[in-house]
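Troubleshooting: if your tokenizer reports a length mismatch, compare your output against this known-good record of 268 residues.
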Amino acid sequence: MITLRAFRTIITLLATVCFCCPVFGAETLPHTVLWAWQRPEDLSSLNPDEFAVAYLACTVTLGERIVSSPRVQPLKVPEKMRMLPVIRIDTDRLHPPPLSDSQADLVAHIIAQFAGLPRSDGVQIDFDATLLQRPFYRSLLDKVRSLLPAGTPISITALASWCLFDNWIQDLPVDETIPMMFSLGSERQKVLLYFQQQRDFTTGPCCRSLGLSLEDKQVNDLMVPLATARKTPVRLYFFTRTAWTPEKVQLVRNLLSKNEKTESIKPN
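Known-good structure output:
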């Protein structure tokens, strides 16, 4: 069960995230989305027609028991900004979870609560599931789907390797899969070489969205041209290590504008 303390924190979340508007489907989100992570963020100067915001709404830690930690940092956005709450799932390494069906039920209900917040364009789940956690994750997504109203979009982040060398996510019950092309770890050179050879993701759902870090110029210079060259529009998500500033937002614009110009002058 969610504790009284957690419910009080959720009320704080609703008070600090400044928005109020009807619910929309993720299919109509702008094609550029900024991730607002666990820190105070002032995005009140953003143009809602140009950007959407995916904000960390809650961190759920899987252990011997489930710990839910809703966002407490303020987030300022324009009144008409399109919003996507993100639920981050971590694992307590000192007290490994049983990954039981009852735990999946509890986490699914937590996720569904945040999907129902005012002006939520669905919900996004960020879980770097290990091989042993995959059956649990699949069951969790099934449960989330069953709890949400019909048509509510479910978005997930995905390790790059899941979209290149491992096809286990192909049939998950989700509407959007976002390959994370940053924090690539030991597979970084292998992944970059793959794309440097003019290849693309092998899993269809992974070709419609892309997660990038503003600070990783090497990856951005490689992947943004590839994404903008696709026939189907690609939604680009941008992460930054520190709080967003107007200068950082302009860097995103510059990166996209540069590649749009390059694409427009390609010969037929």
